[in-house]
Write a structure and sequence with these properties.
heterodimer, A: alpha+beta, four-stranded antiparallel beta sheet, 35% helix, B: 269 residues, flat
């Protein structure tokens, strides 16, 4: 038992497992870039969920990850056991009587390495929590004015307004999504403008601005009514409009692969007392028309609706990682700035 | 204004080249005069380079950390700054020859890159990103200086300094200085990882993503953690620790340039 304890307190173990960690990581960095079909989804899912789904199935590409994680586990065990081993010594330093001199106020720095180690353990613990819990949800589309559910949460979100800003070159500068968050009873909870780098946080979940788009919503048409006079109407997909004289115009399908003003196709059906006429019109910039029997339907404009795309993530380990990293950085500073070893006896 | 900052950058690079030549002269031929001349030229070049980057930042309306040209500028600047601080404190001209060689080679490479000002992607418009990048380059400067002292450690240890006029400190002092510089580099790199994590968390909701760059950043961090621990292992201190310090420079170079140029990563330029 004692020999196992000594093995795990050894600094040599850290040096060797650290170098093994580096070797596996170096191999992994090449494979991650070279095999995107395996690693492409790695960041879009909770880590252990991804590992369970794709890890063993693609062992030839993911083998390094097991070595990487095993070396990391040994480093952690080494750090933990080494810190526990040194605990009596650390506690002994607290009450030790000493001669006072001008540097006495720096005596506390003897604890710096142990606090840095504690920080490291917290970072890894936080990573473990992040890798096993919470959720990641990408490509959540919210249309202006519509209350839509939030995935994994008993909440709803409504996009009130969306404003994209661009540089003169046309490159995106910033996206602003003004949103209202509702509880499960659709009672408003929070109003905020989400933009890139400024997410909305609610119950441990962050709502991040990801993208935006425009979707074809309605067509503005000129069509002859029952008396033969042109009439301006708006039609959405599957919508029917009575034109008078027993005539009904239906927009059966409306397809587009465009963002607002590009290309697409509309398929109409005109029901008259004498029968059914149908036809399709391409949606191109400007007017286009289709003859349905003796009637002419002219597309005069397209009506679009804007949507925002949000990523909604819940990371339960993030704060542990933050506290751990802060501790580590702070005491790395102390270790660099003060030669604490002169206070050790 | 765009031309001015590029012109100042070029003049600063000529300054780096001349200070490099003066420090070689100081180490081999004219110990006293060349040292002072080298120091003054290096100081002027660093100040000019800093001014060039400020001018570029004003012209671009953002901190110049948005593209490869600007990153190379930061890389060169922080190595030159670390050299300047070291030479001013220690008066050890031989110690800055290696960092200035890295500066001159990087500068020649940088002159071949497009210097066009680019707009900042929305995700990069964050104070956390700017601190993250600047602290990473501060650490690179310190690691380079640490590696340089470790090289001198080996030269001194193997009595290869007979061709130089330099009155170098003993091996133990070089070892201690290298250790101190690498420890400061480790702090700045830790700070860079902390701020990078905060930035990524605010931008995308992930403080860590599995890309080649992030893996190599973790490797570099663990590498220098291993180096720092060698200070407490009698068998590893000295020769092995200094060998790690020299190799660490190449690990750092690969983390910065190798990953950007050879592997696909979200950090690539």
């Amino acid at each position: 038992m004692k020999s196992i304890w000594c093995f795990f307190t050894s600094l040599k173990l850290f040096l060797i497992s650290g170098l093994v960690f580096i070797a596996f990581g170096a191999v992994g960095s090449i494979l991650i870039s070279a095999v995107p079909e395996v690693f492409g989804d790695m960041d879009h899912d909770i880590f252990f969920t991804w590992l369970k789904k794709l890890g063993f199935a693609n062992f030839s590409a993911t083998f390094w990850l097991y070595g990487f994680l095993a070396a990391l586990a040994i480093i952690n065990l080494n750090t933990l056991i080494c810190s526990l081993d040194k605990l009596p010594f650390i506690l002994g330093q607290i009450n030790r009587p000493r001669v006072k001199d001008k540097h006495s106020y720096l005596r506390w720095t003897v604890f710096a390495p142990y606090l840095a180690h504690l920080g490291f353990l917290l970072v890894i613990l936080g990573h473990l929590v992040s890798s096993a819990s919470g959720f990641k949800s990408e490509n959540n589309v919210y249309y202006t004015g519509e209350i839509l559910p939030v995935p994994h949460m008993a909440a709803y979100l409504r996009l009130e307004n969306f404003t994209p800003k661009f540089f003169a070159s046309g490159m995106p500068r910033q996206f602003y999504s003004e949103v209202t968050l509702f509880d499960e009873h659709k009672k408003p909870l929070k109003k905020q403008i989400i933009s890139i780098n400024h997410p909305l946080f609610y119950r441990g979940a962050g709502f991040y601005q990801s993208s935006f788009g425009e979707e074809l919503d309605q067509l503005e048409l000129t069509v002859q009514d029952g008396t033969g006079r042109p009439r301006l109407i708006r039609l959405a997909e599957k919508e029917r409009k009575m034109l008078g004289g027993g005539r009904v115009l239906t927009l059966k399908t409306l397809t587009s692969d465009f963002r607002g003003q590009g290309f697409g196709m509309a398929y109409f059906e005109l029901t008259t007392p004498s029968g059914i006429n149908s036809g399709a019109a391409y949606l191109i910039r400007g007017r286009n028309s289709v003859n349905l029997g003796k009637s002419k339907v002219t597309i005069t404009d397209v009506v679009t609706k804007t949507y925002t795309v949000l990523t909604i993530n819940q990371d339960k380990g993030a704060y542990l990682v933050l506290i751990g990293a802060l501790l580590m950085t702070l005491f790395a500073l102390v270790t660099a700035a003060v030669d604490y070893r002169k206070f050790l006896n | 204004m765009i031309n001015t900052h590029y012109l100042w950058f070029q003049i600063a690079l000529i300054g780096y080249l001349f200070s490099f030549i003066f420090f070689i002269c100081h180490s081999m031929f004219f110990p006293k005069r060349s040292l002072m001349a080298g120091k003054i030229i290096l100081l002027a070049a660093v100040l000019l380079h800093l001014s060039a980057m400020i001018l570029r930042g004003v012209a671009a309306s953002h901190t110049p950390v948005a593209n490869f040209f600007e990153s190379m500028n930061q890389f060169i600047f922080f190595i030159a700054l670390a050299s300047l601080i070291h030479i001013w404190r220690r008066h050890n001209g031989l110690a800055v020859i290696f960092p200035l060689l890295v500066v001159v080679v990087s500068a020649v490479f940088t002159l071949r890159i497009s210097s066009r000002i680019t707009e900042m992607y929305p995700a990069l418009q964050s104070i956390w990103f700017e601190i993250h990048v600047l602290s990473a380059f501060a650490s690179y400067g310190l690691f380079t200086m640490g590696a340089s002292l470790s090289i001198l450690y080996f030269l001194r240890r193997n009595n290869k300094l007979k061709y130089f006029n330099e009155n170098l400190p003993a091996c133990a002092a070089l070892d201690k200085n290298a250790s101190s510089l690498n420890a400061w580099g480790f702090f700045w790199f830790s700070f860079s990882m902390l701020t990078g994590g905060i930035w990524a968390y605010y931008a995308w909701g992930n403080y860590w993503i599995w890309t080649a760059k992030e893996i190599w950043s973790a490797l570099l961090w663990v590498y220098y953690a291993v180096y720092i621990h060698t200070r407490f292992t009698p068998r590893w201190a000295g020769k092995r620790a200094n060998a790690l310090s020299v190799i660490g420079f190449w690990v750092m170079i690969f983390t910065f340039l190798g990953v950007n140029l050879m592997l696909r990563s979200s950090h690539s330029f």
